[in-house]
Amino acid sequence: MNDMYMDDYLGGAESIQAAIILRDYIIEIMKSAGFKLRKWASNCPQMLTGILNDDNDPLIVLNLDDNEIKTLRLCWNTDNDSYQFKLNAEEKTNINNTTKRAVLSSIASIFDPLGLIGPIIIKAKLIMQRLWQLKYCWNDLLPNELQQKWLNYKNSLIQIEKIEIPRCIIGRNHVQSVQINGFADASVHAYGCCVYLKVTENNDVSCIRLIAAKPRVAPLKVISLARLELCAAVLLCHLVEKIVNKLNLNLGKLVRLLPFLDENNVLRVGGRLNKSTHISDEQRNPIVLHPKSFITNLILRYKHQRLLHAGPQALLAAVREKFWPLNGRNLARKIVHEFVVCFRSKPTVFTPIMSDLPESRVEPTRAFQVSGLDYCGPVLIKASLNRKAPKLKAYICVFVCFSTKAVHVERGLCTALYSDNSTTFTGANRQLIELSKFLTSPENIEKIRKFTAELGIQWHFIPPRAPHFEGLWEAAVKSVKYHLVRQLGDVCLTYEEMNTVLVRIEACLNSRPLTPLSLDPTDLRALTPGITAVMFVVGSNGFKGSHSRSFFGGWTVNQFA
Description:
Strand content: 15-25%
Structural class: alpha+beta
Number of helices: 18
CATH architecture of the largest domain: 2-Layer Sandwich
Number of domains: 5
Shape: elongated
CATH topology of the largest domain: Nucleotidyltransferase, domain 5
Largest sheet: 6 strands, mixed
Helix content: 25-40%
């Protein structure tokens, strides 16, 4: 279907035998639907013999004059398999008293859909643009200056009949590599682009052919040359995209597979595993599938259902046991996405619009006056310095300041404490309440009234199963683990050593900039949680010593000045 245009067919093959098989196959296919193909033409005379003509149709094969097929003024010379341009007799004569209508008619009469003679046609278009600038009517005669330019152009137009453009752009021998090269340029009057195809065969012989070109007249509004060059580049991008889609350049991907035809004329993947006896023939040399073939689509759909709607990776792996579809990754994703069952089971998740931050997160307070709390772990610590000391489980308690985002494991008094609703924290809250009742008993209240008058901690629990309420301290836990894993690895420390390392991690976390860093060395220092809280800045206190751990002792990990 890709080779059909309206009621015409244009196709070919690598060899005469393959072309004859293709011809007969197309005749049978169209005949079964009630369509009879006629007006055959070919660059190979053998293709025109052997065509059945039961109705004695005189137009079953075209009788060509000079072996040329003409479409408007674009001709296909079947002798040398090239395109040529032919002019009418009136185009070859000088016509005086030319009007604007005649100029436009002459430009439109040259059929050049691929832009192969774009540099020639653009000169006529520039004359037409000048007529629009002068605001000439359709039947107005051209001024003397433009009349002379137009006559010179018409006299030189006869030279295009000498141009021969090869129809075949890909060599007939074994192709080694295929390249598409595009060029774009602009001037103050016009801009354009052209695309070439470079084919390298196995004998290292390269063939370069012009595929298409696009000329454009510069707009009447005066713009800079740089902007016109940008317009040419955009025009080139669009042209290359069209060419890649039309030419079906899967040939470049196919060449890398080292394909070959088996005894049944089936195209298979080559390789260097042909001497392996433990791999089946189908796995060594899978059948190559065209990405746009309907059969390829059916095979992938069948495998997808047999695999219980597996994902793209599993689907492609299963298909490649017998077949090798070109552009297989994209095909597998497309098949999985097209199945309604797969699409519904994995819907697109949209991030909901979050509500406003709570007041405790946005109101300025003293550092750690309002804090978040979470545990992480367990981590293993040694009970003593002995080599065979037992290992105990320990947990790290992380506090995060709501106001400054500072992180600390030991802190001062706070007025509000936020955590999740786990049993660990609810039990701790119950013990604090019992302690508070003890301290506020009549016999003790007078002793500590003055000391506790200003103190009081409110413990806030987030709703159960609502992790989106604890993003602040969960992020802090993740950051602590990030440094802990990379610093210690599998090393087991004592309680004191672990506490020292955690203090070091605190300093690192509290030294992360809260504002973007400036490229200007004269700008102010970046704001960090340590600066805003308790001045925990790495380097300000002169941390020194090695951060590696020796084989016999752990002192090198924790030695700081």
